[in-house]
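Run log // design_07
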């Protein structure tokens, strides 16, 4: 018997968002590692926490993380059509981006 599909929706309370993020981030990292091992592919996962204080990335070793980024950049430099999709940015995303940039400049 399968598990029921959970209704996914935005959590209005910041504390609920942070708790849900903390509980799910480990599972997402585990799935990324499983994909890499099972299929022999490079998987790169990077996420900022909802409060923009912390970030998580997989693979956990910085050298491996940078190797995958360098590999992507070298492939993209050879293929001009290789670009990251850019979703439409709404006002809250712009505010989040400004907060991230502010934290990175520190």
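design_07 sequence
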């Amino acid at each position: 018997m399968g598990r029921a599909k959970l209704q996914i929706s935005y959590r209005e309370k910041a504390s609920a968002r942070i708790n849900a993020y903390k509980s799910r981030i480990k599972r997402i990292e585990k799935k990324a590692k499983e994909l890499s091992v099972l299929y022999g592919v490079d998987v790169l996962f990077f996420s900022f926490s909802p409060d923009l204080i912390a970030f998580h990335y997989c693979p956990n070793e910085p050298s491996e993380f940078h190797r995958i980024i360098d590999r992507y950049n070298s492939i993209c430099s050879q293929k001009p059509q290789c670009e990251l999709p850019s979703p439409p940015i709404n006002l809250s995303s712009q505010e989040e981006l400004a907060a991230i940039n502010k934290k990175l400049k520190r």
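The chain is about 55% helix and 10% strand.
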